[in-house]
Amino acid sequence: MDLLAKNLLSASADFLWRLRDGLIEKNVPLFVALTFMGLLLLINTIECDFRECLLRFLRWCPGLNYIVQLKINKALADVHESIHKNSRVVYETSLPAHGLSSDKVVQKLRKYKASEYIRWNEGFASGSVYPKDSLLADLSSRVFKEFIWTNPLHPDLFPDVRRMEAEVVRMCLSMFHGDGDACGTMTSGGTESIMLACLAYRELARAKGIRNPAMYAAHYFDLGVVHVPVDPISYKADVAAMRSAITGSTCMIVASAPGFPHGIIDPVRELASLGSRYGIPVHVDCCLGGFLLPFMEAAEFELEPFDFRVPGVTSISCDTHKESWLYAGWDTARRTIRVLNRSQKPDRRLALFDVKCQRVNFS
């Protein structure tokens, strides 16, 4: 598109020079139309929109730049103060000249822990930390000791870890009523789970010829963002507003089950129906309630279907380190599950990411 715009403008400029010199007398409307098309295409391909350019210009102005910098410095100071609440802690900034004994290391770590500003283990925190069970902590310590040096990126060396990962994924798929063709993978957390779903749908959109898919995770994947208002009373996703926001570039619809701020479950069935109608994948963010909602029906709570039983739902993300009581770490074998369902429409199946999440294959 960029090359076409440049060629049209170049041809139009050449025409204008010839017209000025009296070399061309015919086809004036044609070249005017081509010039107009070239300008439209060029404007459409500008990466920096007007607001961003305006902000850059304002930051460049000496007087305004000083005011902006003051605001930035104040924000940085506020962030620093919110993070470093205990000013008495001295930070280690270089390796110690002499090694520390095991007792010294433990003593130093306990000193750090004693400086915690919020006593989360006494009920002074909402979210973030979910399990608090001494037996579970002892079991986790024993398991961690057994597998501390394993690396899930090398399944040839650690086939036992690969098997455990596959079993956990399959358990979660069964929990969300995934069929035999459903597949999934473990990630480093809820954020990566959602990002990988976005990556899959971006690739699917590009395979359809959509140049700038409109969806979340825009900064990482060069995507557009569409903000849709929620219902002002129920705080659920507004299905009508979602329908109005759909364009030819929409490549993903997201539903929360539940949403983190209010615990509200979006109308998944209606949103999935909307996705099926327009051929758009629907992702259900179940990171917070992934290990609660699947058991609500057995506990005799009335709950609308939200998982793979709903036609149109193509992916689900859930966190194992919340209500399933696993600890939060950085080992990809012990974290969030991202599930992809391949049983929707035969012509739009999604295949599993490879282990390093380098590419996505679509069959």
UniProtKB/TrEMBL annotation:
<keyword id="KW-0663">Pyridoxal phosphate</keyword>
<dbReference type="GO" id="GO:0030149">
    <property type="term" value="P:sphingolipid catabolic process"/>
</dbReference>
<dbReference type="GO" id="GO:0008117">
    <property type="term" value="F:sphinganine-1-phosphate aldolase activity"/>
</dbReference>
<dbReference type="GO" id="GO:0016020">
    <property type="term" value="C:membrane"/>
</dbReference>
<dbReference type="InterPro" id="IPR050477">
    <property type="entry name" value="GrpII_AminoAcid_Decarb"/>
</dbReference>
<dbReference type="GO" id="GO:0005783">
    <property type="term" value="C:endoplasmic reticulum"/>
</dbReference>
<dbReference type="InterPro" id="IPR015421">
    <property type="entry name" value="PyrdxlP-dep_Trfase_major"/>
</dbReference>
<dbReference type="InterPro" id="IPR015424">
    <property type="entry name" value="PyrdxlP-dep_Trfase"/>
</dbReference>
<keyword id="KW-0456">Lyase</keyword>
<protein>
    <recommendedName>
        <fullName>Sphingosine-1-phosphate lyase</fullName>
    </recommendedName>
</protein>
<dbReference type="InterPro" id="IPR015422">
    <property type="entry name" value="PyrdxlP-dep_Trfase_small"/>
</dbReference>
